[in-house]
Design brief:
The protein is α+β, with helices and mostly antiparallel strands. The protein has a single domain, classed as Aminopeptidase. 30% of the residues lie in helices and 26% in strands. The chain has helices at 39-47, 51-58, 67-74, 127-142, 156-164, 187-200, and strands at residues 19-22, 28-33, 81-88, 96-105, 108-118, 146-150, 168-170, 175-179, 207-209. A 9-stranded mixed β-sheet has the order 7-8-6-5-4-3-2-1-9, with helices on both faces. A hairpin with a 2-residue loop joins strand 4 (96-105) and strand 5 (108-118). The radius of gyration is 16 Å and the shape is globular. It starts with 18 loop residues before the first strand and ends with a strand.
Length: 210
């Protein structure tokens, strides 16, 4: 499987869409597209993961990302490679809390390989669902019909969660397919869709809970 190469446009570093959400515990979270200046945030987020979380996401327990990995994770064209980051907007330094991304598959441009990670301190608070909902809507806008996740067999928490969202997969191969066309009625994507539509209508207040 070959992932689609990026065609990086430097103007894509300027983001116009950002969303503010309140997690179940009251944490204020800002979601926006990843930009190159997020390199340090992404590296710090890696350090905030437990060894198990690092292994499940990156298939390694290494505590730091290489320069090559940081370049890949932060230099994103937002077309063939899409990435959004969740920031703690209540902290003046806006540390990263989670990231979601997808990369188109070269042989199947309407299918993309997706990945997401939430630091351990913010897990089980609804952030993963929000990140996936954002990715779902961006995929819709980019013409991606299937989001495919590669999940380790022992990562039953994520595989069970994906199956609960309608993903079809094989535990033997560790591959799960989420057909976005079949999930248009899920609450989180619709709530985010309403926020985006409100912005385009004139910047309605985007701070609410999900």
């Amino acid at each position: 499987m070959q992932l689609m190469p990026q065609s990086l446009d430097k103007t894509s570093h300027q983001y116009t869409n950002s969303l503010q959400f309140t997690l179940q515990d009251g944490t204020q979270v800002l979601l926006r597209p990843v930009i190159p200046d997020d390199r340090e945030r992404i590296q710090n987020g890696m350090a905030a993961l437990s060894s198990e979380s690092r292994y499940f996401r990156f298939f390694t327990s290494a505590g730091r990302l290489s320069d090559q990995q940081l370049h890949y994770f932060s230099e994103v064209d937002q077309s063939n490679h899409v990435a959004w980051i969740a920031l703690d907007s209540g902290n003046p330094k806006h540390p990263g809390l989670g990231v979601t991304r997808f990369t188109r598959i070269y042989e199947e441009p309407t299918t993309a390989e997706m990945a997401f990670v939430v630091i351990d301190a913010c897990q089980r608070r609804g952030l993963g669902t929000i990140l996936l909902a954002v990715l779902y809507l961006v995929a819709e806008a980019r013409g991606v019909q299937v989001l495919r996740a590669i999940v380790l067999d022992e990562n039953t928490k994520v595989s069970n969660w994906l199956r609960s969202l309608g993903a079809k997969g094989s535990c033997k191969r560790g591959e799960y397919r989420l057909d976005r066309a079949g999930r248009s009625g899920t609450p989180s994507p619709n709530a985010i869709r309403r926020k985006l539509q409100a912005r385009h209508r004139g910047g309605a207040n985007s701070n609410s809970s999900i």
